[in-house]
Amino acid sequence: MKTLLFIFLILFSLKSVSQWESLGYGFNGPGYGLYFDSTNNHLYACGFFKYADSILVNHFAVWDGVKWDSLGRGAPYGAPGVSITKFQGNVFGSSVFYYYPPNYDVWLAYWDGQKWDSLNQNFNDAINTFKEHNNELYLGGTFTKIGTQGANLLAKYDGVNFTPINVPSLAGGFSVKDIEFFQGQMYIGGNFYDTITGVNDLERWDGTSFQPFGGNGLAFGAEMVSAMEIFQNDLYIGGHFLTSSGSPANNIMRWDGSQFYDIGGGLNGGVLKMKVFDNELYVCGAFTLAGNVNVNGLAKWDGSQWLTVVPGVFNNNIIDFYKNGSDFYVTGGFTFIDSIPLKYIAKFTGLIGIAETEISKDISLSPSPALTHLKITSPQTNIHSSSIFDITGKLLLNKIINAGSFQLDVSSLAAGLYFLVLETPKGTAVKKFVKE
Prior knowledge:
The structure is a single chain. This protein is mainly β. Helices cover 2% and strands 48% of the residues. It is built from one helix and 45 strands. The strands form 14 sheets. Strands 1-38-35-34 form a four-stranded antiparallel sheet, with no helix packed on it. It has a four-stranded antiparallel sheet with strand order 2-3-6-7, with no helix packed on it. The protein is globular, with a radius of gyration of 23 Å. The model is unreliable at 1-18 and 351-355 (pLDDT under 50).
């Protein structure tokens, strides 16, 4: 009890620094991809923007924690920066790099810190995804040629040479969206039709040929796979689909090597990206529900249940994200989070301390301690949204409310002290409560 009181006094002696922050003035167009370099703590971004702050960056930019900078002249032509990664110490990006030797359109170049280099290879269309495996860089996209050699949708680079891994798909309009290695085989997902296997959008490479698994892939047409990730020894597959092999999937499913499984009821919209941080699977996309949990296009799966990640309502999709400690970066098509103008990229700083505000005094919680439900009453103002954090600052629940009186289900919380952050038209209210 003394320990709990001590923690309470320390936390309530600090000011709140839980907030969304802009990174400079943001971009003048949507962000498509992020890469965080832990060796120098720099965040690299690509997208359909020409400016970061007032700096001309042409679709590629780097944030050093204080300011944006360009990567040379970037890619100054009309195509956006489609994807970005780092391999063998260089930043690789996909866009139209016309003016680099050999002076024709190349969809792949690398930045060595001083200049862009095309590797004297001409990819004739975009690279959507990069995946490093066994010291080789695998590339999937919409390209069909590298220079004069055929390379349909898939290739690899060993640091010297490019080797095509041709997907036997019809050319034109088809693409590989993601690549993952699972149980010794390479899995590819996207929007394609394999003319040999007859499979749509999802198959695996056994080292010699592509093979279907778990059925015949997805349905032909609008369905597609956008992202894959290994989590807790299973392959998670996300995209825009409702069934797989006849079983319900709802835009995300799990493959254990022998069959597919539903994930907590799935999502009510398509998945764009998936990543694993701190033994949790993070997902972003065009959804508002994860299972029966209200989310804002960003959710996480802990292996047994869906949880919210950060508070706030985005006015457009999150397309990519990255978590670095207590900082959470997002980019996409949004220009507002709640009522805060944040142009296409933002950072959530996490909670390191909370102080009660004047608004909090007009809001009551009951019962205390709470067992299964917590009733919130705000007679002076409506509450737009509510978020519950534990004493470490970890977000556990976020819900859109728009009411003056409501209940929250806290039955799944462990016993202990929690903080309730309430967004109102008058500002942010912070209350503490104890779960029994």
